Amino acid sequence: MTIALNELPEFTGRVAIIATMHRKEHAIAPLLEATLGVQTLVPENFNTDRFGTFTRDVARPTDQLATARLKAQAALEQTGSTLAIASEGSFGPHPDIPFMPCDRELVLLLDSEHNLEIVGQALSTDTNYRSQTIRAIDEAQTFASAVGFPAHGLVVMPTAEGTSPDEIVKGITTEAALTTATKIALAASTTGTAHIETDMRAQFNPTRMQVIGAATENLLQAIARRCPACNCPGFAIVRHNPGLPCAWCGTPTLLTRSITSRCHRCQHEQTDRLPNGEATADPGNCPYCNP
Which of 7, 186, 210, 273 has the greatest CB tally within 10 Å of its CB? Predict the structure, then answer.
């Protein structure tokens, strides 16, 4: 993506606060600085774990987007700045392929000076998001080998739910630490089993870090699109409209026929055919020709 800095004067020369404590700036900052011309800064002692943890010892207070917004607002309040970037990830079944796990990352820009909220996102099946009940150290080692350990960190605890935060061992990246944590968890368990899972925090999960980078690129693409009505940055896609007609019979299919974009500021909407998209759908996707 190539965007001239003079195309985005709203941001050039400003300080963008990255609301993270898990080194997400490694994926986000270089892209922001090169494209928007901002200086990035991570606030000191900024605790994002208060907005929820993957290990479930702190529940996320609301949905994914609203949580990212809370992080950005907290960063602005703590620093007194006017421009913040926050990221929030979510892991679970793919929306279209339920048996396949996926990583959905949101990266949100909040600009109180220009009253802007712009969101980028990425959905990827390239994730090592996994967990398992184990009964012995060798089972923990087998699990570790399957999920990219030690480059990807692990978490071990006596049980998957209801475990005291003091009994959760995070950021495991060595064989010795894995062995010790597994022994302690098994000894503390009342069932003779322990729970092991991938550490999904960004600094312990390089695969996730790449998806955060992709979401940042999507954010920058959204920022670069200006509203045709008021020229505001962030003319974002809000809806994919199905109905691409079958090439044989013309029956509408579930495939995307057009996209609708909306301006955050003036609420202007515009619907366009997908650029370089197909005019018709393969009959294999047709409910009539391929029931």
Answer: 186
- Closest by alpha carbon to 219, among 90, 92, 120? 120
**Shared domain check, 138 and 119:** no
Q: How far apart are CA 279 and CA 243, in angstroms?
A: 11
Identify whether residues 82 and 18 lie together within a single domain.
yes
Q: How many residues does the chain have?
A: 291
On whether residue 21 sits in a domain, the answer given is: yes
**pLDDT tens for residues 268-279?**
999 998 767 788
Is residue 63 exposed (0-12), middle (13-18) or buried (19+ Cβ within 10 Å)?
A: exposed
Helix intervals (H) in 159-199: 175-188
In angstroms, what CA-CA distances link 270 with 81, 226, 239, 259? 33, 12, 10, 8
How far apart are alpha carbons 247 and 280 in whole angstroms?
5
